[in-house]
Amino acid sequence: MTTARELDERYGRTAKRRLPWIIAGVVAVAAIVWFAWMTVTTSMNSVDADDLGFEVVDEHSVTLRFQFTAPRGADVVCAVEAQDEEFGVVGWKIVEIPGTEDHSQALSVQIPTVAMATTGLVKSCWVA
């Protein structure tokens, strides 16, 4: 009569065959947990900015109104720019905003230009 152990050995169902699968499973679960944690921390530190409008003051400046949403208490830095009718950058400015307890803030910034601008916009914002 054939025992269960002999059948396991005959068909390759031994503990040595299960160990690589267990290790692979643990590594896969660890990788999923790590990617999930990185996604959460990245979204918690993200800044979302929206243009509200602009006003061309004269050929040497543009006033830009924008709002941004950032984590409470986080210092934020925004790069704003003015463009001409051919979408060339004719002025830019880095704006440093100290952190507050407000989740969202609206700002008005004057951007110096080297030529007549036709628009002003927020290029990007990030947590400092």
Helix content: 25-40%
Shape: rod-shaped
- By DSSP, the count of extended strands is 6
The topology string of helices and strands comes to HHEEEEEE
Report Rg.
Answer: 28 Å
Distinct helical segment count: 2
Could you say what the CATH architecture of the largest domain is? Sandwich
Strand fraction band? 35-45%
CATH topology of the largest domain: Immunoglobulin-like
Largest sheet: 3 strands, antiparallel
- CATH class group of the largest domain: Mainly Beta
| Number of domain modules | 2
Residue runs with pLDDT of under 50 for 5 or more positions: none
List the helices and strands and how they pair.
Elements: H1 4-10, H2 15-44, E1 48-58, E2 61-69, E3 76-83, E4 89-97, E5 104-112, E6 119-127
Antiparallel strand pairs: 1-2, 2-5, 3-4, 3-6
What would a concise description of this structure say?
This protein is α+β, with helices and mostly antiparallel strands and 128 residues long. It has helices at 4-10, 15-44; strands spanning 48-58, 61-69, 76-83, 89-97, 104-112, 119-127.
